[in-house]
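Pipeline run #58 for the internal structure catalog. This entry was flagged by the ingest filter as a single-chain record with no existing model, so it goes straight to prediction. Upstream metadata was stripped on purpose; only the residue string is passed forward. Reviewer on rotation: M.T. Logging verbosity set to normal.
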Amino acid sequence: MVIKTEVLEAGHALSREAQPAISSLAKALSGKGRVTLIVGAGFSIDAGLPSWQTLIGDLATAIGEVDGHDMGQMAASDSDDLLRKAEYVLRMRIEAKGYGTPEDLIRTALYEDRKGAVPGPLLRALAQLVASLGDRVTILTTNFDEMLESALETRKVRSKAILNVGLEKWKQEVTSCQRRGVVPIYHLHGRVSRVKNDRTDSIVLTESHFLKHGPRVREIVVEALKSSTTVCLGLSLTDPNLVGPLWDTRKARKPTFAIAVPGAVDGFDRKASSAYFLHKNRYLERELEITPIYLKNYGQLEQFIYEMDLAAKNVRRYLLPADDVNCTAYGARLRRALEGVTTALGSTRSKPVPRGSASEALRKKLAAELGTGEKAGRVSQLLERYSNDEAVTDLLRKLEHKVKAASRTREKFGLQLWVRVPAHGVAHARYEILLAGSSHFVFHPPADESLTTWSVDAHSENMAARALARGRGYMWKTTPEISLGMWQGMFAAPVRLIQTIPSRSGDLRVPLAIGALALTTTHTIQVQREDIPPDSKLSLLSALNAEQRRELGSILGAVGAELLSAP
């Protein structure tokens, strides 16, 4: 049964009732059989690396002028098939500069041009699942980079990249890895190491690459599909080296699942885009005989991976009825967590926004995080460190000069705590957030509290809702669609509670996204160096690098989790 568009848009994608395939996958992961994870570009994009299309576009732009013509711009604008486009872009790029190899060009685009990239929330969640599956798991990935290996190393999971081998050698390598407790990773399109002199597999990027290496790659994919339960993650499933084997084995393979997040269609709203995506992908189920599981956004994808990790460890409890106190399914845990949140905030299920003394107590806690001097909170200490960082202040001065910013005045910050709307049932929880409190005022909600709620959506005008939907910190300036009063910008980060679940093998710690904490500013945030009015006052946040934004997001997430944890 495929989820209905209105159910997906309402945010109920993690419900077992809405998508029975979740229970089927949970059972498969909890067994003793082999599991193959096929990991696509979505996980590398989440880590800050370019998509395949962006990578080719970057390589095209770098061609520059040839014979007095801007070949780079023309190549970047060319709408030719990507495989064919990659073919001539690589050739033109090398010829124009007179040096380099395809591997060198990709290495520069992946690592040198994006030095701040590190494993993101999706890869961290995946690494935890892989650690739980142990020697049962094999990973196939279409990504060139080593972000997956880095995420596994952080979890102390040993892995081995198996490079440029045929089917028989592949089988031998997988067997050897199983014996040694090592996770085999096969880069279907080749691997490009950070270290230039390290061994690099033959890359598969262009049309001729696919023709040359495709047969060998497809043999290995076919073997994996026949011998194990397969889960496709972060893939568009348009790669011929994947689609071909899926078609060839459709009547003779183990269960295959595809976890998918609908994308937006230009010119159409979110609901219409989701409906189109679901109809379009019926091909996967009908022709390729894949079982799809659809999620509304990548924040849900991260949560879903943690859910499957929990199910793999104890599927019996995960599949208990939702009203059973021992049930560990998402809906049951979410309901219990939100009950704890109302206790921590001093609110109730029917009136989830704190009022009176409870609202004032929350305001004081938020304000304390922005205190100064001896009473400096964690957030204000971090902002003070950034304001004294020479690299940050130098970049801020350059940005201010470039945009002819207004004379600098003292920047003021605030904090806003947003939480999920309390659940009134497992399958019907509202996938929305509401403003629970602020550092600058005691909140008095209107009679109709729905006026203060926002749907958790990756394209929401509310940055807190957008951060929760994307599973990562998100920063933007205010827009006409959402007014924050005196505040001109917001940096929001997801808040995750760590739930402890008793188990015979030891307590299990499972993250549960529950809300967002937003840092607001009186100055304008310039994002992606877009144009802003010349009389704007630029925020310190505009000059933070990727590592500093991650650090700020981590601190905001930790502060929010403490505020929402029941005493």
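catalog note: The mean pLDDT is 86.
catalog note: The longest strand covers residues 508-521.
status: ready for reviewer M.T.
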